[in-house]
Write a structure and sequence with these properties.
- By secondary structure, the protein is an alpha+beta fold.
- Strand 4 and strand 5 form a beta hairpin.
- It has a five-stranded antiparallel β-sheet, with helices on one face.
- The protein contains four helices and five strands.
- It has a single domain, classed as Thiol Ester Dehydrase, Chain A (Roll).
Length: 143
Amino acid sequence: MVVSGDSIDDITVGLRTTFTKTVSESDVYLFAGITGDLDPNHVDEEYCRKTSLGHRVAHGTLVLGYTSAASTRILQDFGRPMVSVGYDRVRFLKPVYFGDTLTVEYEIEGIERERERTIAKVEVKNQKGDLVAVATHIMQLVG
């Protein structure tokens, strides 16, 4: 679901959307190269087989990045630009493995009308329905 309009009053609490993405090896390697985070937990399968993880895992911040797609979708037809001003209470609850299909559930839980901000609950689940990450996302109207 998306919202149109140009006033914070056009956005309602309870507005929600989802975004689904399968985590590929190329996603993780490109992210590792861009960020410089080449930790063996992300790029060395042999190393990971000897750990409690068992396999390479995606970066938590890559998973958080997928939540940005949901925030963009929920307001894609909105008349004024909005920008992310932060994430609060970010938690990575379970490892995300290459090949996992993640679904981001994004729901606007509050609106700060005087500051023209939205507060959203973000939950990320894998293909088994396991909750793998959570956050609160804050967006600000600009322009």
